[in-house]
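Private note to self, pasted from the team thread so I don't lose it. Backbone tokens:
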């Protein structure tokens, strides 16, 4: 067993463990962190397969953006774990059966991909063919030539989805005061400050002054 094969088995073992802990962890935050670990192991396996673009895309997009957003949402929500565990064993047989079917389908597809072809090529020819080609460069050529229109359609769909999400969540909050930026720009100095005339400050009245004023009031009465 060479070093590359050993690294593959190590990354695959950690990936399987992290994926198992994602669905068995009771705390949603721990499940999200295990999912981050699974993404890292998958990107490492892609690096071993010389798919550098897919590996760095997985780390930047999913780990750097999607999973960080998931962690913020999960930590901000007050999730009741008891209600989540309720009814687990009731739906476990159906979920287990579906999982077994999916595992059998994946094993059938993967085992079919590992079967040797009728005309195997030598390792030297394969290494020579892959060493002279940059998969990132070839992927870019393929996306912007043959799949240019599907790529643009996907970009437009994502843009519409972003605008729709902003429009659905952009609501006027009643618990905060709205300030129009145009009014702030057009405001003048005299609008910010108002001069109020206040009477001059008088000294604090003493006991003698209070007695004299009371006598004057009684005299007038």
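Design output:
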């Amino acid at each position: 067993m060479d070093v590359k094969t050993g690294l593959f088995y190590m990354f695959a073992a950690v990936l399987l463990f992290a994926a198992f802990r994602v669905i068995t962890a009771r705390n949603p935050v721990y499940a999200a962190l295990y999912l981050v670990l699974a993404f890292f192991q998958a990107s490492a396996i892609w690096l071993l397969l010389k798919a550098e673009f897919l590996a760095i895309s997985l780390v930047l997009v999913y780990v750097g953006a999607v999973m960080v957003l998931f962690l913020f949402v999960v930590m901000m929500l007050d999730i009741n774990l008891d209600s989540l565990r309720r009814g687990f064993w009731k739906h476990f047989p159906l979920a287990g059966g579906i999982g077994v079917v999916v595992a059998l389908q994946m094993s059938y597809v993967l085992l079919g991909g590992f079967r040797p072809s009728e005309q195997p090529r030598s390792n030297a020819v394969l290494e020579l063919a892959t060493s002279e080609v940059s998969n990132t460069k070839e992927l870019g050529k393929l996306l912007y030539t043959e799949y240019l229109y599907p790529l643009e359609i996907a970009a437009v769909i994502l843009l519409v989805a972003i605008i729709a999400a902003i429009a659905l969540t952009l609501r006027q909050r009643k618990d905060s005061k709205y300030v129009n930026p145009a009014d702030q720009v057009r405001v003048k100095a005299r609008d910010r400050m108002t001069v109020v005339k206040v009477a001059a400050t008088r000294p604090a009245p003493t006991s003698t002054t209070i007695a004299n004023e009371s006598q004057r009031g009684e005299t007038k009465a």
